[in-house]
Design goal:
The chain is an alpha+beta fold. The chain has three domains: 115 residues, Acyl-CoA dehydrogenase/oxidase, N-terminal domain (Butyryl-Coa Dehydrogenase, subunit A, domain 1, Orthogonal Bundle), CATH 1.10.540; 108 residues, Butyryl-CoA Dehydrogenase, subunit A, domain 2, CATH 2.40.110; 123 residues, Butyryl-CoA Dehydrogenase, subunit A, domain 3. It is built from 13 helices and eight strands. β2 and β3 form a beta hairpin. α1 runs parallel beside α3, α4 runs antiparallel to α6 and α9 crosses α11. Bound molecules: flavin-adenine dinucleotide (FAD).
């Protein structure tokens, strides 16, 4: 297939990547302490540095088009590179949301200028992008956002607040959904903007979570000035952009994004779920119950990999519609809960009493604290069930009192 399109074939790309990685990328350092959440400035600087190295070597943005700085290759090339990159230090922090959600949304919906500037900058390792979607009053009802952007001559003025923005403190740009027409029904009065994260009028605060991480942020907008060309897609056409963004998000969360390079989940503070290693470290490698748990986790992982392949192939060949990504998104949450439970079951009391500063069982205890993340991040599993029932199984749509009502007439925060 690649050859037919005049591209380097996957095997020779793989061999070239193998040689280049060996010569140029540092081996993954041995971790000496427990998992640290991705909220360390040094980690972000390092991720940008590593991305610059990939770019200089000609292995960045593998599936992004060449005109925006990518390589224009196929998901099979990306998969080969990811397989070869195991054991090397990779800029994994940039995978979600920069590469797998924000950049593809700009690619699908942005202006030519936005694509040329933003996509190529992230591929070069110069910029990080995040999402400003959820608001303090709720995240599931995304079309109900109340952050407002008002036109003032040539510019827009943004006021309101966003919350749960992963890693915003380390980012340069955000995709921000705001209401621009209060007379239109809720889905038809929204606009997506590309917003500079650090600029006058934006107050950003970091939120401390139970596991100590401060990677979540909240932002307050007070008369933030946005230029006219900050609009992504059409004015009042923001729902179409948000819908694309959510598809990319569910694809990323479900594990099927072709824009992710390298393996690992640094944003979700997960250990590598190496249950064989955990069983050995805790002296239980021969315990039949522990072996069963390890086997179950392995089987779950294989099912997940095959489900992702099946759904992605179904969508690529038109057998499955876009909302099918909610299936892999759901399975990801199920697998994550199961892994969190399995880790603590095997680690036992060492999951809470392990010595700080020592990698191992304590990681699994720490991971357990964010067990529910996978059922909320990327849209909740309840919303995924709604999508599967309504858009895949054709069941009746959920009742919505605010459908087709001008948004200014929709009751806000009242019962
Ligand atoms: C790890 C992680 C990363 C995140 N990163 C970002 C980010 O970068 N940017 C960002 O903007 N947001 C982010 N979020 C926020 C996330 O998008 C929201 O948590 C999510 O959309 C749910 O919104 P909410 O938490 O406000 O819950 P709510 O919308 O208040 O919902 C509360 C509960 O009610 C259920 N519910 C609500 N409506 C329905 C319905 N119609 N049918 C059935 N059940 C329903 C929900 O499923 C949920 O269980 C992140 C969240 C997590 C956990």
């Amino acid at each position: 297939m690649a050859e037919q399109l005049g591209m380097e074939d996957v095997e020779s790309f793989r061999l070239r990547a193998r040689g280049w990685l060996k010569e140029n990328m540092p081996r993954q350092p041995e971790r000496r302490g427990p998992i640290q959440p991705g909220d360390d400035d040094q980690e972000w600087l390092r991720a940008r540095e590593l991305q610059k190295m990939l770019y200089a070597g000609g292995f960045a943005g593998i599936c992004f088009p060449t005109e925006y700085g990518g390589l224009g290759l196929t998901p099979a090339h990306q998969r080969a590179f990811t397989e070869e990159s195991r054991g090397y230090e990779m800029p994994l922090l940039l995978n979600v949301p920069t590469f797998s959600i924000c950049a593809p949304t700009v690619l699908d919906m942005g202006s030519e200028k936005q694509k040329r500037e933003r996509i190529s900058a992230v591929i070069r390792g110069e910029e990080v992008m995040v999402q400003f979607l959820s608001e303090p009053k709720g995240g599931s009802d995304l079309a109900g956002v109340v952050t407002r952007a008002t036109r003032d001559g040539d510019v827009w003025v943004l006021n309101g607040a966003k919350i749960w923005s992963t890693s915003a403190y380390a980012a340069d740009w955000a995709l921000c959904l705001a209401r621009t027409d209060w007379d239109a029904p809720k889905h038809r009065g929204l606009t997506m903007f590309l917003v500079k994260v650090h600029q006058p009028g934006i107050t950003l605060r970091r939120i401390k979570m139970v596991n100590g991480s401060t990677e979540f942020c909240e932002e307050f907008f007070d008369d933030v000035i946005l230029p006219a060309d900050a609009v992504v897609g059409e004015i009042n056409g923001g729902w179409a952009v948000a819908t694309r963004q959510l598809v990319h998000e569910r694809t990323a969360v479900g594990g099927g994004s072709p824009y992710v390079s390298g393996e690992g989940r640094p944003n979700l503070q997960a250990p590598g779920y190496d249950f064989v290693d955990l069983a050995r470290r805790t002296g239980q490698a021969n315990d039949p119950r522990v072996r069963e748990l390890v086997g179950e986790a392995w089987a779950m992982q294989k099912v997940q990999e095959q489900l992702i392949d099946r759904v992605m192939a179904g969508m690529a060949h038109g057998h499955l519609p876009g909302p099918a990504v909610s299936i892999t998104r759901m399975f990801h949450a199920e697998a994550d809960w199961k892994n969190a439970d399995t880790g603590v079951r095997i680690a036992g009391s060492a999951a809470v009493t392990g010595r700080p500063g020592e990698a191992g069982p304590l990681d699994y205890g720490q991971q357990y604290l964010s067990r529910q993340s996978a059922s909320l991040g990327g849209g909740s599993t309840e919303m995924s069930r709604n999508i599967i029932s309504e858009r895949l199984l054709g069941m009746p749509r959920e009742y919505a009192a605010d459908r087709d009502v001008p948004f200014k007439d929709v009751a806000q925060g009242r019962t």
